[in-house]
Amino acid sequence: MEGTVKCSANYLPLTPISFLERSAVVYRDRVSVVHGDLKFTWSETRERCVRLASALHHLGISRHDVVTVLAPNIPAMYELHFGVPMAGAVLCALNIRHDSAMVSLLLKHSGAKFIFVDYQFLHVAKAALEILLKTSSKIPQLVVIFDHARSSSRVDDNMTLTKENLEYESFLASGRPDFEIIRPHNEWEPISLNYTSGTTSSPKGVVCSHRGAYLNSLAVVLLNEMPSMPVYLWTVPMFHCNGWCLTWGVAAQGGINVCLRNVTAKGIFECIARHRVTHMSGAPTVLNMIINAPSDDRKPLPGKVVVTTGGASPPPMVLFKMEELGFNVTHAYGLTETYGPATVCTWKPDWNSLPHDAQAKIKARQGLQHLGMEDIDIKDPETMQSVPPDAKTRGEVMFRGNTIMNGYLRDSKATEDAFKGGWFRSGDLGVKHPDGYIELKDRSKDIIISGGENISSIEVESVIYSHPAVLEAAVVGRPDDYWGETPCAFVQLKDGCNASAHEIIKYCRDHLPHYMAPRTVVFEDLPKTSTGKIQKLILRRKAKEMGSLTTTSKL
Amino acid sequence: MEGTVKCSANYLPLTPISFLERSAVVYRDRVSVVHGDLKFTWSETRERCVRLASALHHLGISRHDVVTVLAPNIPAMYELHFGVPMAGAVLCALNIRHDSAMVSLLLKHSGAKFIFVDYQFLHVAKAALEILLKTSSKIPQLVVIFDHARSSSRVDDNMTLTKENLEYESFLASGRPDFEIIRPHNEWEPISLNYTSGTTSSPKGVVCSHRGAYLNSLAVVLLNEMPSMPVYLWTVPMFHCNGWCLTWGVAAQGGINVCLRNVTAKGIFECIARHRVTHMSGAPTVLNMIINAPSDDRKPLPGKVVVTTGGASPPPMVLFKMEELGFNVTHAYGLTETYGPATVCTWKPDWNSLPHDAQAKIKARQGLQHLGMEDIDIKDPETMQSVPPDAKTRGEVMFRGNTIMNGYLRDSKATEDAFKGGWFRSGDLGVKHPDGYIELKDRSKDIIISGGENISSIEVESVIYSHPAVLEAAVVGRPDDYWGETPCAFVQLKDGCNASAHEIIKYCRDHLPHYMAPRTVVFEDLPKTSTGKIQKLILRRKAKEMGSLTTTSKL
């Protein structure tokens, strides 16, 4: 329109960097990060991040260079989420459960210029660099992070600093506090690179933009009903989708980041009581850990704690028990490609009058897109037709919006496949309820096809979870001569509890159609990714290795 | 980065239209708008807005055409905030206090194609169109809105519908519910045009973009600590900066819009009790109305009500009394050019232990930029140097960010002046406190310069407000032979209260440096804009007309 103009007064690229800049003024003297007895304020955190950016810049890091980090939820990990983008670079936080071979592969694929490593993972990083040296002459600069909240951190075996390795605090000290931070020219520029956790396929490098990160951070703050100055407990790994975007989101609201190196029930209860935690997040496994905590490890909650869970549907029993303890559970769902949370099962007040198990069934739904995501649909992946909202017809969950990744790094083919038809194809299968809410019916590979019938492993697991002796369960398909596949349950019992395979099977037959009940039950500790997802890939392999069941008729 | 792509799956222009689209699914059966006994749900509101867009499109409205409206806070006014942008057009909501001459001028300046008019203002619109006809052959199409919540609405004198005039409900009915809405190609495109209220100069047309409206809506939701499904009482006129962006913000959170044709204390208390209102906003005059309500008009609050106030600093007494009644007051500040609220006086928990009047002093500060605004500063308008944070040095309040207007319609010169130096110059004067919070020390013209000393009229008013007999006060400069200017107070006393000019002057001298005390006190009802701002321009004129005071020495 005539008379208007786009200029530096009215147009700036969206970036989470702005959250820190603002909080360093508004909340300047309030606590930003706490880790054991170590505490920083927002103005200190900003200064540390600026120094970090300056030091990176000084050592030649330039726009869009990749900086990796291998660390648990410690203050340095938080600072890297701002310091790296403030140098114009791209943060790539690696999963701390990776072995050296995988770390080496990801360093190579990302073309990383730096690797920041927590002292506990130094041996992994060093071995990865050695592998890398065999095929490349350029290896990333290593910076070791000691944990100043732990006196033991310096005496670890791996602690010997060679002269070519830098140490985090000295590195920071070498940076200038008045460094002019490097902002994106364009909000579409990358801020982070997150490798998919690879439970079902080889890792892909998800490129996230400043714009997407900004918008998803605000959406996640709203989804968590997070007011200003929340106290957030870091039980979700920051390397998992940048802590579901709450690394940036907590800065937006000037909250307190309570760091936690090891996620244990005792640690969670202690932090909640000590810091008066208001918000936390975690996979259902984390909730499970909480509700099954021995009484010695528990402490009463100082107030309501809002917990956002995702990564898998929370089983009804887990929900009940969490609410009984005083937690307020919200269920969200998303993928690395959606910057973490993309949907939320928005709770309607009318549902409070429903019976408890009906409530739990609704809460286990993935719901609808959050405020930052434009659109969600469940479509036939071939025809792109929407499925009817009949709670029965399955289709693929698809998204459109500004909180969808820019694409997969150096994999145009995978990017193209993911965006075919103008929607992001999640690979997850689900149904649409008459009220529009979606419900996952399994990751594509988690469906067990038995005698031509699709069996949702989630449904079977949900029943097994409700058995009083069961701590955790995962169900996969086992080859079967007659039926093709039959459900095989891996079950971990609670300490001091007993149940036989026969009992579990009977329990399932009492609560499910017979064909859905497992034919095999294995008792063991379940393998998990560091983000708490049960590694079904491993279980699927195990089930395969058991060999075919020979059955000739229906159970 | 290699492998990435920008496409319809991962990039969509930001627009508040998305809020309605999402809420029509997530909150489909929940109440969206309530007005008397009339109620709509979010899916109904969406359908009505789509029909409205379709009907406009059918009558030839195309991208960036201007559609005006002259109406109080009724459902149609709310619907126009979505229906007009969904036709690709630009909404221009006019101040209902304007006379026909001003309406005619704004219709001409904006090049409006439509004018939607509430039945109560039909005579104003008709007279405006008649004026317009004298100089132009093209006049906007008129659509009359009857108030279905009022049986009297159809029997008004002005209700005779001529055949060339349309009626709102029939107009909607003529639109298609399956109309494909017209989204912006680019988020920079205009969504609304808001004429500045013109307390100090001739109205200018502020052009707002879809991007800015989206971002400011989220920022205002966060600033109000508004969770999902709030109940919002419309005491701020929607024609004022699109209801401080909460027309769109309440849709984002799936809240209930409680409409209110006339803002009275009785109406406010009734609505709060009946609808269990959680949030509302208003100029300090609205708060004043609440605290001075006769006891018959009051009802107990059903719960905490969050009130955001702005437009002028809330006087301490008003704050105390509001809090006593159970309201939780947040102070925000902004201008039409900043889409309404731009700053918020974020309340720190440490301040709760301060004495009441220290708290009120802090709360009267404008604070710092909200989450959607990039930057705020107080600068010397000549040198562009920041003033020191000494709570004393004055400068001009300046902003930068995505929630600053695109510019002034057809006034490149004014746009250029406003953005000179790469910042938006607010024209307001203020100081910066040591903690970074800003405090207005008067709109530029509100400073009284007396014997070379600057007197802040706000400071003088603040003292007068604390006098027990005073309902409202405004202080302007009156010409003075000796001092140049001296403060002249216009005071409205509470019903049944008495105070002499002498008493008021003495009270000020007891609480202020003597030179700041008014030399003239006039008792009268204060003239106000419809947004509750006291019209100082009129008072300044009156003070001038009184003629010069003849004083020869200090009081």
Automatic annotation (TrEMBL), chains A, B:
Biological source species: Cinchona calisaya
AMP-binding enzyme C-terminal domain boundaries: 459-533
Organism classification: Eukaryota, Viridiplantae, Streptophyta, Embryophyta, Tracheophyta
UniProt cross-references to CDD domains, sorted A to Z: ttLC_FACS_AEE21_like
Chain segments annotated as coiled-coil in the UniProt record: none
Keywords annotated in UniProt: Fatty acid metabolism, Ligase, Lipid metabolism, Phenylpropanoid metabolism
Protein name per Swiss-Prot or TrEMBL: 4-coumarate--CoA ligase
Pfam families: AMP-binding, AMP-binding_C
GO process annotations (BP): fatty acid metabolic process; phenylpropanoid metabolic process
Keyword Ligase tagged: yes
Signal sequence segment: none
Segments forming domain AMP-dependent synthetase/ligase: 20-409
Protein's pathway: Phytoalexin biosynthesis; 3,4',5-trihydroxystilbene biosynthesis; 3,4',5-trihydroxystilbene from trans-4-coumarate: step 1/2
Alphabetized GO MF terms: (E)-caffeate-CoA ligase activity
Family listed: Belongs to the ATP-dependent AMP-binding enzyme family.
Record has Cell membrane as a keyword: no
